[in-house]
Amino acid sequence: MEAEDVRISRKKPVYPVTVALQKYLRSYQRDARMPISYKNLMDFYETVPVIDKNGKDTLWETPIYPPHVQENLYNGLKIIYAELKASGNTRIVEHKYIDRVEYCAFGNTHPFRIRIVNRLNDVYDYFYVKQADASRIYGLELEQIISPNPVNYLVDGQTLVEEHIVGIPGDVFARSLMYNPDYNPKRIAKEFVKFNERCIITLLGDMRAYNFVVQITPDFDDFQFRIRAIDFDQQFYEGNPKVYMPQFFKDNLPYVRLCMEHLTDRTVLQYQQEERSSIVHRVRSERHRIAALRDVSNTEELSTPANVKQLREGYAHYYQNNHYLKCRTMTDIIELNVKNVIRQVKL
Question: Is the whole-model pTM more than 0.90?
């Protein structure tokens, strides 16, 4: 493993949700009728920067709405939360209120982060409203099918609503928690190897430390770790193969060093094989769903011809497999990745 300064070539365009993708989403209960849209949330007249407890700019802003607009938006957001969490049962939001709405102009989908609070006990939760991006939705679906991590989201036209993924931001964990004496560094390194392997296979790009979280679960004799992606904006768009390999991002150097210090080449290979085996089991159990996803995504333009050409040549070199040179789309490359994993597990 190694790390370097991999750069994203340019801002990825937002790809619209097509009729074919909408049909797929309806088949798997990912569509919903929402009382307000992303466009409605953009109806603010100014914003105020959100500053953290240390006085630093968080890159989030608080949008200011006219009072009558805010009341309508907040009521709609409560209904959306009920759709996301309880299939539309609004009884769960009877004692909840929208505490704040925050907007981020940094990133492709310019998300709104919503904080909703239970007034009975002050327990709060977050969810996100974003501009729907087809490639991001495909990333969420691949995460649901191929990774061990369930995702919860809904789409209405060009509005995407996502559940908050709980965890410690990867950069924060590396800076302040990674070397906790109670944590087994080999377990953290093992999880990074597996995460790296999933990204390579599913073409999930730009997994710098602040785009994933670390989940920590106490076990009866140790702590277990899981790394989860939280940003799917760079799903199979870029042509540089290293964009899909978290090990090459300079931000992830602490994780790479941990792997180099505590793992051997043999154990790295073992963990890669374990992850491939898990992927095969998940693909087999969801074979109809992944086939439907393939059929839809293969008909859509989700990258540029130049990026597809660069990536298929890069993967042909990486895997020493000229079959990649026949791939016409990013979907073809993922399908070949999965087929190769299935062949390897059978050997």
Answer: yes
